[in-house]
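Anyone opening a protein record will find just a pair of labelled lines. With that in mind, the following record should read easily:
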Amino acid sequence: MKRSIVLSLLLATGAASIAVAAQQAPAPRVVEVEKIKDNLYVLRGGGGNSAVFITSTGVVVVDAKNPGWGQPLLDKIKELTNKPITTLINTHTHGDHVSGNVEFPPGVQIIAHETTKTRMEKMLPNSANQNQTVPAQTIFQANNGRGMPTRTFKDKLTLFSGADQVEIYFFGIGNTDGDAWVYFPTLRVAVTGDVFGAKNIPLLDSNNGGSAIAMVPTIQKAYDQFKNVDTIITGHGPQVTAADLKDFVELNREFLTDMRAAKQAGKTVDEVAASWKIPAKYTGYGAADPNRLKSHIRLAFAELDRERR
């Protein structure tokens, strides 16, 4: 009888230990694949969307996700092709798009806008990047600079030619002051990063040069360039169309017009945040996140104040 009780206690203790261990085990890092074209994929999970373009000689990757997600991303790419990764493009400086850089193989060319590289070099470990789980610089510093861009551009950079051609553009300040837009001409597909993260009020990171006022002409230039594309891969949401990009331009223009009017009427940030809503005519947009909206309004008001001086 005593042995039976002891055995029961041991089994119960073991089961409890297993349950605790299961609760403490980290969640598996699952990267999901969506095929866009025969040689172009979107890989989701672990931060921003990553685009994978398989060329005749190698693989071009756009954005590398959160810390610790670089290797799961690489593993998933190996399931798609046995070609080597030759190029990694970072759309901007946020850690959920660049932290996985450090896990890419040596020799991969890493490309970013010149301002993005500067931001990545100078960003403080406690920088308030709203889209980062871990500041990117702590990762790069811990890896002796590995993962930092090895090539930069100012306005436009063209890689490869023919069916493999990739074009990288900078249209101006938006989400940050170094947002890169990536275009695959033969596929008629563009990648926006977080300057068009999803159908929502955009994240404007003033700590990294983002601007509510500059956002409108920037995305207008992008639409003028990409109004005939078939597919646009956003930074965090599903794919959209050129018509959706046009709506996004108009929403941001309307928002800024409303902020000018509210400012002139003497309204406060809190008053506007409590009343402003995304107009129903913009299809696919839910209610604006209250914290993001308030931050966006505060930034617009601050910029409008400076504009009037």
In short: The longest helix spans residues 2-24. Residues 5-22, 124-133 have pLDDT under 50 and may be disordered. The domain at 19-241 is CATH 3.60.15.10 (Metallo-beta-lactamase; Chain A). The chain has one domain: 19-241.
